[in-house]
Design a protein that fits this description.
Elements lengths: L15 H4 L16 H16 L3 E5 L7 H4 L18 H5 L6 E5 L2 E7 L6 E4 L5 E5 L3 H4 L10 E3 L12 H13 L3
Parallel strand pairs: 1-5, 1-6
Antiparallel strand pairs: 2-3, 3-4, 3-5
């Protein structure tokens, strides 16, 4: 197993070593709060800025992708005036065209929000991320979401509970999303 920390002694996880393997499916294990979700989300954002295709962010339960629980997922990439912890990566990747995100109907969209008025003046043509849940997969399977850059099943390992036949449901979900069947 490779150590994917940015450098020896670093505390932040880096997606580059795994991404460079060019695998169809990667499974990432690591200590809590070392940047795994951040690293994957950053890669999703970079790919979206290059090709305008969204990525798919998957969680086990629908409750996890409700606005109150997920609306801040991409805040670290917003401009600092919209989120104190924002690093401006979205603005950097889009040459200032977009500066923050909105979460609407299970999708994260890049938007340009006027810093003075707070009004959204522009919205991206495609979402950056589409969010889905395994437990409601039957209600959306077969809906063509198009091509996805990355499919990320976040928090796949649980200390609490799993869905009945979760592995089969996950494979059906992948097949439906990626059209691999």
């Amino acid at each position: 197993m490779k150590n994917n920390l940015v450098n020896a002694g670093a505390m932040w996880w880096d997606i580059a070593p795994i991404w460079n393997e060019n695998c169809i499916l990667n499974l990432v294990f690591g200590q809590r709060s070392n940047g795994k979700t951040y690293g994957v989300d950053e890669k999703c954002l970079e790919l979206w800025s290059e090709n305008d295709n969204p990525s798919c962010y998957m969680r086990r339960f629908d409750e996890s992708i409700r606005p109150k629980n997920i609306k801040h997922l991409l805040d670290p990439f917003s401009d600092p005036e919209f989120n104190a912890k924002g690093n401006g990566k979205l603005s950097e990747l889009t040459n200032g065209e977009f500066n923050t995100f909105v979460y609407v109907s299970g999708e994260f969209w890049a938007v340009y929000k006027n810093p003075e008025t707070g009004k959204i003046e522009k919205k991206s043509r495609t979402p950056v991320l589409r969010c889905v849940s395994l437990n409601t997969m039957e209600t959306w399977k077969g809906q063509d979401g198009g091509y996805y850059n990355i499919i990320c099943f976040d928090e796949a390992i649980s200390r609490e509970s799993y869905l009945p036949n979760e592995y089969d449901t996950f494979l059906q979900c992948l097949s439906s999303i990626a059209r691999l069947s």
